[in-house]
Amino acid sequence: MGTVNPSRNFGTSMTWVLWWPIIPVLFIVAGRFWCAVCPFGKLSDLVRKFAGSEKPTPKFLKKYGIWLIDLFFIMITWSDHVWGIVESPRGSGYLLLVLVTMVVITSVFYERRTFCKNLCFLGGLAGNYSRSGMLELCGTPDICKTCKTQSCFKGSENAEGCPMFQFVRTMDSSAECNLCGNCVKSCPNNSIRISPRVPTQELWGIKKPKLEHASLAAVIMGIVFVQNITMLEIWEDILGVIGSFTGTTNYTVNFSVAFVISMILPILLLLGTAKVATLLKGNEEKVKENFVRFGYAIIPLDLAGHLAHNLFHIITEGKAIWFNTVGLFGINMSGDLSLLSGSSVQWIQYAIVFLGFVGSMYTVYRIGNKGPLKQLAPYYFFMLLLTLANIYLFSLPMVHRV
Fold first, then answer.
1. 373-395 vs 211-229: helix axis angle to the nearest 10?
2. Who's near 338: CB < 8 A, 6+ residues apart?
3. Alpha helical stretches, state H, 247-341
4. Less crowded by CB within 10 Å, the N or C end of the chain?
5. Phi/psi at 210 (5° precision)
6. 146-179 pLDDT, tens per residue?
7. 196 forms bridges with which residues in the sheet?
8. Ramachandran sector of residue 135 (left: φ over 0; alpha: ψ -120 to 50; beta: rest)
9. 77: how many CB neighbours lie within 10 A of its CB?
10. pTM
11. Residues whose CB is less than 8 angstroms from the CB of residue 192 and which lie 6 or more positions away in sequence, other chains included
């Protein structure tokens, strides 16, 4: 409905200028609470209520769901740059239609929120970022270990069982907790609570760090880089250089090459850093173990870079939300869309990236068990390198999207 011009379309403005930039802030303040009120999750609950099945989630999805989430996130980001989903109301509609279809199918055939846990691209992003969040849900260990009802997982007459298949007694991460409160309502022992915590605290206390989570953290940093680079004046020059190697001016081909390089580079840098750190420690640990453990330290910088990039849109294009809202009522308003000057936006971005840098550096310190500088120096240098790259990109003039 409405104009096909994304700059004047209400749906496009509300989705990509308001909601998408604000969502990382929610991850910091309230973890994955967005998932508790997400329209797709509510649609899943509704479908299951009237036409759902209690079949368990397929083992394939349980085992490889996070890899599928990573793949979907990469595909959606790629398709946006190639097909312009963000800049097309129709493209945004198609994306939402695909997601609705997946939600309905999984809700008809499988129990609880199978889509949210194993397939939702935003859920994967939310899971990684919520580890740095300021809220956590946890139980009282002495009470939970003697509990026989397991109501937090199975549910009770007060509330359904955990829609994300979490068992509070064994949880060591907020990545898959929606803070929906079902377990709090169901617990017969008043053991479970939602409480504030120090941001990034979870990152150095994860008992079983996973390769897929560390890899996603590195990939997200590369995606943040490419999202920034494509908005710079030098982007056309970069495409020209890539075209000289590929032998074509086809945008899809040349962007895909840049996209793959941007994702692979942070992974290779983290791998090299883990190798150097392993050599400095006298091969006491394996390179893969170091890669996985310290990959989580990138998450605060990921979040900062993502937030700084998104805030550029909401601050420099923010008035489009108001203009397009009143436009629904036949009031035509136009003018400068920016809420602040470009230099003010840049200083806000620098401050956000600096906070992410502090968070990542402290996370390295804690993951490394407060080890000596010599052993952790490669990771400190790696975080500094990523920070400087972010600051440099944000220092360059960016073009507006709407």
1. 30
2. 315, 316, 317, 318, 319
3. 251-280, 287-295, 299-316, 319-327
4. N
5. -120, 145
6. 888 888 888 888 888 888 888 888 887 888 888 8
7. 135
8. beta
9. 19
10. 0.88
11. 137, 138, 139, 140, 152, 168, 183, 184
Length of the chain equals 402
242: pLDDT strictly greater than 70: yes
Question: How far is Cα of residue 363 from the mean position of the Cα atoms in its chain?
Answer: 18
Q: Who's near 355: CB < 8 A, 6+ residues apart?
A: 300, 304
C-beta pairs of 48-52 under 8 Å, 24+ apart in sequence: 48/107, 48/108, 48/111, 48/112, 51/107, 51/108, 52/107, 52/108, 52/111
Q: What's the rounded Cα separation, in Å, for the pair 253 and 266?
A: 21
| 212 alpha-carbon distance from chain centroid | 14
| Per-residue pLDDT reduced to its tens digit, 356-388 | 999 999 999 999 888 888 889 999 999 999 999
Kindly state the DSSP code that residue 160 receives in the 8-state scheme. B
What is the reported pLDDT for 282? 66
